[in-house]
Specification:
By secondary structure, the chain is mostly helical. The protein has a single domain, classed as Methane Monooxygenase Hydroxylase, Chain G, domain 1 (Up-down Bundle), CATH 1.20.58. Helix 3 runs antiparallel to helix 5. The protein is globular, with a radius of gyration of 16 Å. The relative contact order is 0.16.
């Protein structure tokens, strides 16, 4: 009985990836739901910044700007070049769409 419990626990741990998705009531989960432009337009510049950069943080990116380091920290990060962060297709599309919305809104 104990061996079965241990095997089930191990299987559950093995199936989880290193990144953990962030899910938002208004827009969905950043690694599995394609965000909609109309939904993103409802967010503030600060919220857009946070959602976009949390995708990078959960995938191991080490931030270099003071703003990002203060907001997200660099604990547990291991990738120093943004171009080397491995994003899945949904994450890539979401990051690109967020950046477009930030630009259209005049966010910095």
């Amino acid at each position: 009985m104990k061996l079965k419990t241990i095997l089930v626990a191990f299987a559950m741990l093995a199936s989880t990836g290193s990144a953990m998705a962030n899910c938002y009531e208004m827009i969905g989960c950043d690694d599995s739901d394609y965000f909609r432009r109309a939904d993103l337009r409802q967010l503030s510049c600060q919220s857009l910044y946070e959602v976009r950069n949390l995708i990078y943080k959960q995938n191991g990116f080490c931030f270099s700007t003071n703003r990002a380091k203060q907001t997200f920290g660099n604990d547990g990060c291991w990738i120093t070049k943004q171009s080397q962060v491995r994003l899945n297709a949904v994450e890539r599309d979401n990051v690109a769409l967020i950046a477009q919305v930030e630009s259209a809104k005049g966010c910095n």
